Amino acid sequence: MRKSDHDYAKARHLRRQQTLPEGLVWRKLRGRRTGLKSRRQHPVGHFVLDFYCAQAKLGIEIDGKAHDMGKRSEIDCARDENSCELGLKIIRFSAPAVLQNPTAVAETILAVCKQRID
User: Fold this and answer.
1) Looking at residues 47-65, what average pLDDT do you find?
2) 5-117 is classed CATH 3.10.20.30
3) What angle, 0 to 180 degrees and rounded to 10, lies between the N-to-C axes of helices 102-117 and 20-29?
4) How far is CA 66 from CA 56, 71, 72, 73, in A?
């Protein structure tokens, strides 16, 4: 599916408005010191993933309180199904889990990436 200028503009906006948990994870994933290239706020289909590793075809979502409200869980399920149809795997972490131990979350993400690549 072709990404529109709107998708890229939305992703740029989200990168500027990143949450504290997203920032903590990004500090651990950014750069090539991990051996993997990660992107933040990456458009995929009609959605923007918090983080994405193209080599592993892995999307990473950090779920804050908003993900527990209203129809958000339905939207998340639709996003995950859409991503799966595109051959991607999505893993989710709660914002409190990231705040509690961002290093462990980043290590889990890297382990899943490496597992999917091998």
Assistant:
1) 89
2) no
3) 50
4) 27, 10, 7, 9
